[in-house]
Backbone:
């Protein structure tokens, strides 16, 4: 697969919540190849401090305009947030494998489960899913009302949106896993009679993903998860971002096969593939 | 105007320019080929290969520090068999000399591996006797005698150009370089990473699961440059300089200090186009300074 | 709520906090007094004093590198006599323990100087056996035996708290630290600067007139931290950690790694208020983590 | 003397020639104490790259507004030039000794000789000299017409301004030393009969200063020069910026007395004090 290092001008970089920003720029090369779940490796500084690029998922594609949604957590994202329209931006992408979102005709119902900034890649996924179906459910978890992201955007795509907040300031009082539980338990029997299958796509902090894993294991629902790791190269060369996965058939010959690279083999994995105790 | 040539011949390895991809930062060459034309390189050194597959160290393995990074990959690699059967055939399709970087925890492993790799169409072998990310009491390259013995044994089983890669974590690197030369090395690579550490003060735990890791990037450049300068005055075999090279200016500093070629590691992560830019930059510098060949620059420090 | 105390006692030197001005970066304490209140410091270590005045190395003596600087001051100082007669009386006017840092090119010079300084109202002596900017074959602190002998002799002539400052330019710093402890040192300071170099590719000359110089600043922090961690596990005497400390977070990393106090060098140049900010930052951290005294942090790495 | 570390907002930072900028900010603390020839130590970046401060002379003082004039030559000044009005700036000052510009009533005629960006500190000097006399001559040397700095400003102070350019695009075709030569040779006799003494203040690149030194030695004219050195602390603590000066009477006892610190004992020196062969 072809990967590009493009240097573009920022179209817009605007604050969308207390600590999140949305940035857009145009790149035909990337836009016409990228799949939901793939990410970009972004240079945040022209100096050696900070030195490394930062991985950020693709949040939206509209024509050739690429959108990213990011949270300011440290120096790299801090510098990114200071850039303004017209400033240059240097990105490498598209990177990683992306979600496998081909639905089996009408018999699969997608549920998108995003915790915090984990919602970022799911919006682009929803954009693409609407081309196939109209039954998308989006579960958004946030610490409080002010930090809920993308709710209007998802509604505009006609998604069924449900919200949870840790402090109950909006939606249900609880976590996005509580929301998911509700989708799974009662519906499950209904769906079965209609011969429908849920398909879950999730991204968020590790503790949340671990709970999602427990839940979907219990109900045996097909789930894909987008993971994060500290990255250096982002392209599969440095072995910095490995993750332990379930035993690979080849692992007798080559035990390294049990370790995958989040940047290249991921960031999206089948939730069952990951050895969750090892994260 | 005279013709400017970037060709070099290091220890019998013919390269079209002196810019090499450093071990461990360029995988097996194939990953970056989706993004850049790897035919541009003077040579590619593979990620370290060991006899048996290694799963490496636990996560996290990478942490950024001021003007650099620490890594504790721990030589994760699929082992010699997979390298020979799967990686090498693809790599040989490129028009670039391939240097296999090998390591082991015992002398015998190096010897066996060198023997295994001798007729595989490789352009050279680099002995990584300086990786800080594996457990044994001290690195081979921290002791001149140990280095001498190891290189001597490997030398006996292979006629491939033999490059010995040294660690900067020593009192006097010239002693280790001399020992390598005496034992029959054809070239010296330096530096591998400096041993460092970083702590998360909130969790009170080391940021790397392996506690310590190897420091690379611009932060180490002054140390690397000094060592290249010291070593190149003390050995007759060529020195491949590396450590924090980000630009053609950095590369030229290493050449002036005495390096015959340079290797680029961490910079690939930051700017995958670094090597191409360096090649162009060296050319421009040669023109401006009326240098016709790389050896006109090597060691020309006033 | 319990009372938080930053007091420490290092080798008999009572300090009101563990933040020390590092030798050579704070002159004789007086220069910075026009800008900041130097009474805030836990202690001040003077610029290295030698028996005779030294004019130091030729210019340029300073060059900036990535996240750090190289210096080749070469121990310029007015000598013991001027120090005792002019500098010390003024310094003693402050309410801060003064530690004299001394050096020499021969063992005998150290001994004579230590003897001269023994009844001058100093709080302690720091032996700089690790300055890379003076010429002799290797630094004292690059060899355990040499270190042992030197420290032993100085120990005999002074009952002042004796701190030995080590160089990071060694294969195994724990050996040198152990030798210092065995010889009677009361504390260990580390690290002095890493030896580095920088080249001007236009003039093709080293950027420092002395060719090589000492690397300091954030670039060296990972190496310094690792060495503090290694050494503090191997010696019973306290370790004063330094190398690239810019913030209270950096300081706390050193404490967690095993340091009993920290020293601040290059950071003073960038932000003269660094030490005050560090003291405040450590206090805040102690509150948040329910630590009551500095020794609650020291070595608490999980 | 009291030194301050002030953090202020930039009032203005504007381009004044191809590669020079003028920045202003307000600082009462510094403004009310500073002398011409003193300098500031300026933080150009919030990151560790570049790490050290950069020494820049005070160019002008108006009420409490401090002006600096700087040339973009590398990363530090490059970053400085990107700052805009309202951005924070962190400076230490006033540093160094400054010019000794007290004139002996009416019997001294000041000549200010600036090469390139060396003109920067001389404007502030001219501001202060106008309080004492009205006979100021300013010699400005530049590579070409576009790089001539401050000509109007000096004229507004009623200084007699003469210009040289290396390519003859303005003023005389030559260097500022050629201009100075003209001031010295013919005038010298005239001045003597009037019992007037020239007093020279100069700043610029080292080769130019060396020539000025030769010239003024020949005519024995009192001259002060502002020098540059790579600096770390800027305050006299690190010994990074020493310069060799003529034998000091104390030098038998303490030979380090022959070396002065440009940051503390300078940057302004009597031109005769410097050992010019050693620079
Ligand atoms: C595939 C992938 C996709 C991502 N997509 C998004 C996204 O769409 N929006 C978003 O806001 N964030 C995303 N992240 C996380 C984002 O990369 C980090 O928040 C960012 O790198 C932090 O950089 P910083 O300099 O601001 O923080 P730092 O000061 O470096 O560190 C702050 C925190 O961020 C973590 N961090 C630092 N560097 C990385 C890194 N390279 N990878 C992962 N974590 C890191 C650190 O461990 C630390 O906890 C993604 C991460 C990955 C791996
Ligand atoms: C007392 C004093 C007053 C000065 N006043 C002015 C002024 O009013 N206007 C002005 O434009 N310049 C002035 N300078 C020069 C100015 O300090 C340098 O141009 C600046 O530091 C270069 O920084 P940089 O990061 O842009 O360049 P770098 O990338 O660091 O280097 C570019 C060039 O500048 C030189 N340089 C770098 N750092 C310093 C330093 N700390 N001191 C001196 N030279 C350095 C380098 O040797 C190199 O040749 C003054 C210097 C001194 C010592
Ligand atoms: C992530 C990473 C992995 C590395 N792995 C290896 C390795 O497997 N074998 C080896 O000899 N050197 C390895 N190195 C060291 C580099 O080849 C090089 O010597 C060092 O990083 C200094 O160069 P740089 O500053 O340009 O990166 C590795 C470096 C990095 C950053
Ligand atoms: C300009 C400069 C001068 C120094 N001079 C001395 C010295 O005279 N004696 C000494 O023991 N250490 C000296 N050092 C070393 C420092 O005390 C300290 O060990 C080192 O710089 C690492 O700390 P830092 O990174 O905080 O600067 C000097 C360092 C610098 C930067
Ligand atoms: S980040 Fe380098 S292999 Fe994944
Ligand atoms: S710059 Fe530190 S003494 Fe002058």
Residues:
């Amino acid at each position: 697969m072809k990967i590009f290092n493009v240097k573009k001008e920022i179209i817009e970089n605007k604050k969308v919540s207390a600590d999140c920003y949305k940035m857009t720029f145009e790149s035909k090369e990337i836009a016409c190849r990228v799949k939901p779940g793939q990410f970009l490796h972004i240079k945040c500084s022209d100096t050696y401090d900070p030195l490394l690029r930062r991985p950020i998922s693709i949040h939206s594609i509209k024509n050739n305009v690429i959108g990213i949604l990011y949270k300011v957590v440290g120096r790299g994202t801090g510098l990114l947030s200071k850039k303004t329209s017209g400033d240059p931006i240097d990105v490498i992408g598209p990177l990683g494998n992306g979600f496998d979102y081909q639905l089996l005709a009408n018999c699969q119902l997608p549920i998108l489960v995003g915790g915090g900034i984990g919602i970022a890649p799911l919006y682009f996924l929803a954009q693409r899913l609407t081309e196939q179906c109209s039954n998308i459910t989006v579960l958004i978890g946030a610490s409080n009302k002010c930090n809920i992201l993308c709710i209007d955007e998802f509604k505009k795509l006609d998604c069924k949106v449900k919200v949870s907040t840790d402090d109950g300031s909006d939606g249900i009082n609880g976590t996005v896993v509580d929301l998911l539980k509700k989708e799974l338990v009662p519906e499950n029997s209904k769906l079965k009679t209609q011969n429908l299958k849920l398909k879950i796509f999730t991204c968020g902090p590790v503790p949340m993903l671990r709970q999602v894993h427990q839940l979907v294991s219990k109900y045996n629902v097909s789930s894909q998860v987008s993971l994060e790791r500290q990255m250096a190269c982002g392209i599969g060369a440095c072995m910095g971002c490995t993750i332990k996965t379930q035993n690979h058939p080849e692992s007798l010959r080559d035990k390294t096969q049990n370790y995958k690279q989040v940047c290249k083999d991921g960031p999206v994995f089948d939730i069952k593939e990951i050895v969750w105790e090892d994260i | 105007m005279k013709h400017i040539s970037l060709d070099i011949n290091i220890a019998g390895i013919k390269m079209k320019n002196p810019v090499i991809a450093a071990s461990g930062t360029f995988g097996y060459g194939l990953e970056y080929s989706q993004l850049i034309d790897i035919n541009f390189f003077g040579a590619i050194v593979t990620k370290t290969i060991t006899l048996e597959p290694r799963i490496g160290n636990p996560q996290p393995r990478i942490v950024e520090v001021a003007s650099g990074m620490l890594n504790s990959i721990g030589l994760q690699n699929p082992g010699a068999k997979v390298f020979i059967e799967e990686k090498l055939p693809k790599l040989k399709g490129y028009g670039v000399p391939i240097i296999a970087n090998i390591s082991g925890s015992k002398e015998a492993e190096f010897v066996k591996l060198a023997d295994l790799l001798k007729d595989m169409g490789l352009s050279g072998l680099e002995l990584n006797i300086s990786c800080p990310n594996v457990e044994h009491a001290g690195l081979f390259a921290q002791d001149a005698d140990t280095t001498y013995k190891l290189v001597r044994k490997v030398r006996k089983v292979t006629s491939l150009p033999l490059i010995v890669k040294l660690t900067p974590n020593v009192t006097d690197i010239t002693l280790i370089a001399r020992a390598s030369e005496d034992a029959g090395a054809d070239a010296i690579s330096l530096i591998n990473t400096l041993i460092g550490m970083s702590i998360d003060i909130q969790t009170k735990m080391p940021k790397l699961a392996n506690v310590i890791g190897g420091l690379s990037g611009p932060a180490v450049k002054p140390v690397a440059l000094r060592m290249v300068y010291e070593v190149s005055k003390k050995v007759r075999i060529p020195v491949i300089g590396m450590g924090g090279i980000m630009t053609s200016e950095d590369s030229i500093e290493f050449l002036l200090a005495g390096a015959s070629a340079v290797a680029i590691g961490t910079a690939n992560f930051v700017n995958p186009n670094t090597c191409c830019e360096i090649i162009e930059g060296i050319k421009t510098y040669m023109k401006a300074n009326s240098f016709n060949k790389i050896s006109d620059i090597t060691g020309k420090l006033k």
